[in-house]
Amino acid sequence: MPRSDHPTSPTRVLVVDDDALAAAGITALLGTADDLLVVGRCSDGDQVAHAIRSLTPDVILCDVRMPGMDGVAVVRSVPHGQPGAPRVLMMTAFDEDGQVLEAVAAGAVGFLLKDEDPRRIIDAVRHVAAGDAAFSPRAARQLTHWVQDSHSADARRDALEKLALLTDRELDFARALVTGASDAELAAQFFVAETTVKSALSAIKTKWGIRNRTQLAVIVARSGVA
Question: Carries keyword DNA-binding (predicted)?
Answer without folding.
Answer: yes
